[in-house]
């Protein structure tokens, strides 16, 4: 309970500049990220530390308070949504498992921002003489977590494990606001929020990606993306630019992927689209030199063959120059995603509505990009195959589901059919949430969405046929349909990973934090090095290849092979070559060359 209150205190303090300026939770989040960026940009430019960032955040809060007095519009938020979000966050506290996988990578970066001085962009890297990570070159979300940790007085490990509980109300609120903005209906906002929670939180079980909102990937997808959609459709140009800029720094490819379903609105919403594109383009131009250093950008034939072999279960491959995403990938998120695909042709009947270009046109654009081989191949060359396949998740499933339900339910007595459909689809396609693709969703649903959606849209345009959505009934249908998914998630409300199987001993962690100078280089076996980089503000010689940016500056494979050689031979030249002054063997910490 004490940790929860301290996290709440720290999170609230970080959000204060946004709360002072924002008129919605989406704006609060946008302005908060803008303030965090401004404060840390100064810190990293002058090579200072987190204390300066806190001072600058306080200055920005004072400026925001003065600016707010000039704008008397108050914060407008659904109290019910926040209350439900707080309750959900409390339950998420109990499914927060051990920090593992990518979480250790992010924890290490947060820890360096909290504990090290003389900070600059490369300070948070895992290698002292390596290079920037193209996906996290500016550690914006890590900076947010670091401020929460410092202001709450909690260890970064606690923040990485439990901050999701404090971010859940924000995630639910921005999902609701996105639906309300897209459809101009509170009922539709409810339907969208229900779909978002069902797909990403309850569908996978164990809290889904909402249990790791403290990590940049989930935060960008569940917080920044819905907020960006909400602000885009509200035509709030400056906050839109700020949140898209934040998204481009937190997860660059996700910013690009979000622009794809919004592209059909480029004429109607030209100013809003320009506000979104400009900061994303600026961030990508800044990142371009780093992106060009990666082996997956415009890959060689050997790299492409390797990538195709790694992701072959998610692809349909005819040759190295002719492949596409498997149709089963689109429905892998479970019953609500499958329902959205099947309902997409019905959404085309609302072609006159403001939401149609996004819900229908945007969905068809994403489907074509993923399923037409020559489009997908070129897209993968530009974005890398590891990232391009993720663009399928940016088909606006929650919005398609909300619109489809509002169009499908014409009478109240039909609502029980939504419950029956939810039960049937949840039993048949509960989702495929493991790494890779085992069975996915029904391929037929994807083809229905693509060809059915395009066909119905063409017919509706020619015949001038239109159907008006009934969002009130749609909200009832959405709740009933999603109920089996929520029950399933509640029945699997346990931590996904209770303990870290590779966790270091408490004694070793204590020694690393008390004996090893901050910023020192530690030589250890690969997995041990990965754990070390998370628990102490130090650098390592090498890390797991799957968790290291594959850039020329990092020389990831060379480092990996050198450490493997050291493990087998105890060759002292490895430590000398990489500047390591401490080493860990068999769980024991010693000075290099000493005992």
Helix/strand layout:
Elements: H1 2-21, H2 25-46, H3 50-70, H4 79-93, H5 102-115, H6 140-152, H7 156-162, H8 164-183, H9 186-202, H10 216-233, H11 237-250, H12 252-262, H13 270-293, H14 301-310, E1 315-319, E2 322-325, H15 335-347, H16 356-371, H17 373-383, H18 385-388, H19 397-408, H20 415-428, H21 443-463, H22 471-491, H23 506-514, E3 521-523, H24 526-535, E4 539-540, H25 556-569, H26 572-578, E5 582-585, E6 588-591
Parallel strand pairs: 3-4, 3-5
Antiparallel strand pairs: 1-2, 5-6
Helix pairs in contact: 1-2, 1-3, 1-6, 2-3, 2-6, 2-10, 2-11, 4-8, 5-6, 5-24, 6-7, 8-9, 8-10, 9-19, 9-22, 10-11, 11-12, 11-13, 12-13, 15-19, 15-20, 15-21, 16-17, 16-21, 19-22, 20-22
Class derived from helix and strand content: mainly alpha
Q: Number of helical segments?
A: 26
User: For this entry, what is the oligomeric state of its chains?
Assistant: single chain
Order of the strands making up the biggest sheet: 4-3-5-6
- The percent range for helix content is 55-70%
List keywords for this structure.
595 residues; mainly alpha; four-stranded mixed beta sheet; two-stranded antiparallel ribbon; 64% helix; 4% strand; globular
Description of the molecule:
The protein is mostly helical and 595 residues long. The chain is 64% helix and 4% strand. The protein has a domain of 176 residues. It has 26 helices and six strands. α5 packs across α24, α8 packs parallel to α10 and α20 runs parallel beside α22. The model has no long low-confidence stretch (mean pLDDT 93).
